[in-house]
Amino acid sequence: MDTMNTDNNTLGKWALLDIETTGADCSVDEIIDVGFLQFEGTKLVHKYESLCRPSFEISKFIQKLTGIDNKMLKRAPLLDDVIGEVLELDGHDILAHNADFEAGFLDHHFETLDFREGHRWQDSLYFLSLLFPHMSSLKLENFIVGFGLAEKELHRGFQDSVDLLKVVIVAALMTKKDAGKYNFMMSLMHKYSLQDYWFFRFLCLYEEELFEISEQIDFEPTAHIEMALEWAYPKTLEDKQVYEQNFDMTFNGQNVKNIFSNEEKVSTLFNGYRYRKSQEDLALKVGQSFKNHIHSMVQAPTGTGKTLGYLVPSALFALSEQKQVLVATGTKTLQAQAMNKDVPALHKLLGVSPKDLKIRQLVGSSNHFCELLFTQRQNEEDLFSQSSELKDKFSDIYFESLFYHNSNSALEHMISKDDLPFVLRMKLENFSQAQKDLAVDYRACSSKQCPFYANCTYIRGLRDAKEADIIIGNHALMFSWTKSFPRPAYVVVDEAHKIEGEATKAFSAEVAQSDLESLHKQFQNLQGLGSLFYLINTMIDENQEEEISSLRMLSIDTASMLRDHLFELPEKFEMIFKKMPRYTDKFWNELPMIMPTEKEALRLSVFHHLESIFYLLKSVHERLYPYTIRWQVSDMQGQGEITAWTRFEAFVGQLEDVMNALSVLLKIESSSQPHSLSMKYHEQQGFLLSAGPINTGRILHDQLLQTSSSVVYTSATLGNEHGDQGSRGMEWSTGYLYSEPERRFRTGLYLPSVYDYKNRTKVFLCDDTPSLYDKDFVKTICDRLTPFIEDIDGRSLLLFSARARFEKAVEYMLDKFEGKLPVFVQGMGANVVEEFKDSGNGILIGMESFGEGIDVPGDALRFVFIDKIPDLSMEQVIRLRREYYETNIGNEFEDYYLAHRTRNLHQKLGRLLRTETDAGAVVVIDSRVKKWKNSTMAKLTKQMEPYQIHRTNFKEALEASKDFVNTLD
């Protein structure tokens, strides 16, 4: 659509600018490349690009990233000879993506000008996030690739400036194409008095003006608009397929066998399908569990076809018995994968339409956002101030855009808490607080009374889920189930090896510095009790001025007392933690929680501050409690009352959460379960008090297994191949061990490996290497790896457990191989894994966690190097959990500590074999192993089955790996 230009819509003088540097720290790093496009109105008046010679040689990583090498820079002018061109942009609006970076390197140069007009940074990151609030990553490369502008971001000053201009042009044109979205954005900018915001004026341009700008950079945007729309707003495809039932849908064992064993029929539906007995056995075990109302554990190794293995019996059971089944995956990403890939495959396999077999995704309540709370929050703040700065109002504008998106999108495309861009939380202090404040609290949900009921993603999700045969959720959902309808009694817990960590998060009671600061703000500004005042005035007939005045004073006095405590606490926590011998200013530090028996004065004073805060909040809660039981949401009439009730209930909920957590942390009230009580401190985020459950197994038994008819735990890594090592710790942490014998199978089912690990892999463990902390560790290791990688023609994945070692390895490998073999680096581009696959002979370097999320089948990967046996977290809750296991359950070293580490190692080794024809070698090095007793080594070897671990020295391991890999070619 075309639009009317506005009188104040002149773009003025503006430019797009990008720089490349030697690194990210503007205090020590230097600019090596600068490029910009300079405009007056819609006219391109100047283009500029130049390299800049730094005072030192640039790293191999930067050379790889930018394509700029030291030889090129030797001939380049100094920045002093270039900066004059950049300073000509004084008086301009300067567009950059994540402009804080450019500002950090350039602002002090502008400050040297004698007569300054003043430049204004315009960050396209904010603009794009408002147009595309559902994009969790706002990297410029994602838009460049997604819009079909280029295969990757070039990381060159001038070209990235051109690409940024292309991105904002396409973004503006595709917004204009959607009249509803465009009008919404226009009204949003007017509502927040942002008519002077540069990107608002850009969005107001006529289409022909945008095309005029495009022509000056030889860009035709039309073809990219449809690509951008398809990428940014994937349509929910209507299922127009005609389904003809392929199998008998009766729920029984024989029928399950008939489905999976009919290789001829299934292969007509899925090209290349092969019958796998282990998949059939998994399905039968799920069916037996559901039919007999008992719990089970099933290890289904990679290649089993696990998801369809449990979905088929779940579908037959749900349809035959008219009982809902809940499938809980490890993460929301796996939820989406199940919905987009596995559920359509299930419909196709059975020949049953989505209307006849209803499968719905459900996201937990705390992951949704409440528009009613947002409206109340706006009413409590001075949103319509005279400030024209976007940053001052950005969080509110973003959430307005979010709610617009959610109300106009299918549920599967909704924005939840997990989708919010991390970069916005880092850049804007109030963004994270808004994320917390606006999360749906089912305790305060007014349901049908809410004016936003029809479009609420939480309510829409519940409506769909109530009608579903199978609900796809994640682990966290099981622990925060809504009270509006019962949790399904039949549950499949996939990725069960992660359940301990998820249960720890779900059942931990925490109080952060920011939580107390938020309560202080709400008391001080009467935000917490303001809604109660409204309810008292409207819901109680007699005059309540005296009561309201008393409550107002309570709020003000509470704020004053909280302020006094919060004035001293952060500094005292900092003093305590900086006495630690291994204090770090980069990560979280942890100490045991202070107890009332503490002798040291500083620590005792912290305890008394926290104790006083608890009793202060307790007295406020006692005063407010009668009002929480006086009214129900059904008593509310009209939006004003409903909004006030919701806001008041949400505030009381926050108050109770903090108060209850403090009561556990300070041991004011006894807990039925043992907890790890600790305090943590972070240089930027302040203090955090945490009470983590030690016995997650008992909690899971009481709150999941005991309340369900049947729970099936399944994972590729529950224990070793036969389940005779490493599995008992899983049985304990999942609660399986606590179930009565008649409620569970006596032992888990450990399905045989689909892949031939014995003959298709060689795994070596070496301890004749330097300590991980040796300054020459990376060089020594890479010196030995280099000739080996050359001999096998690349095809290698190298994983490092610390960023410092990772970065050194990247420099080394780029120096040795760039121009000989392609080197790919984690974080260097959105498609780095795909590029590695396509190369056929590349070297891929990543961090330890990177090795758990990549899938490289085929010949492109023949060798995996791991720089140590994965460690177990040293958090206090883990240490106490180990002690508890040793005292109450069994051998914690073997069943818990070592089992956790070997499961982690299994995950990384699992990158190597992704199909039956894959093969290769793995070398794990760890000098600490030389101190292990033979019995410990034997246990590790046993727990790593079906992999056969060969102990040898590093040199022989590489020689044997080379011989093995070469026999595969």
Q: Could you name the key traits of this structure?
A:
single chain; alpha/beta; Nucleotidyltransferase, domain 5; Rossmann fold; 4 domains; seven-stranded parallel sheet; 49% helix; 12% strand; globular
Count of strand segments: 23
Q: Which class of the largest domain in CATH terms?
A: Alpha Beta
- What structural class do you assign from the helix and strand content? alpha/beta
Which overall shape is indicated by the principal axes computed on the Cα atoms? globular
Explained architecture:
The chain has 969 residues and is of the alpha/beta class. The chain has 4 domains: 13-232, Nucleotidyltransferase, domain 5; 253-360 and 708-750, Rossmann fold (3-Layer(aba) Sandwich), CATH 3.40.50; 509-693, no CATH class; 757-968, P-loop containing nucleotide triphosphate hydrolases (Rossmann fold, 3-Layer(aba) Sandwich). The chain has 38 helices and 23 strands. The chain has a 7-stranded parallel sheet with strand order 8-9-7-10-15-6-16, sandwiched between helices. The chain has a 7-stranded parallel sheet with strand order 19-20-18-21-22-17-23, sandwiched between helices. The protein has a 5-stranded mixed sheet with strand order 3-2-1-4-5, with helices on both faces. Strand 4, helix 4 (100-110) and strand 5 form a beta-alpha-beta unit. Helix 14 (277-292) packs parallel to helix 15, helix 25 (527-539) crosses helix 28 (638-665) and helix 32 (777-791) packs parallel to helix 38.
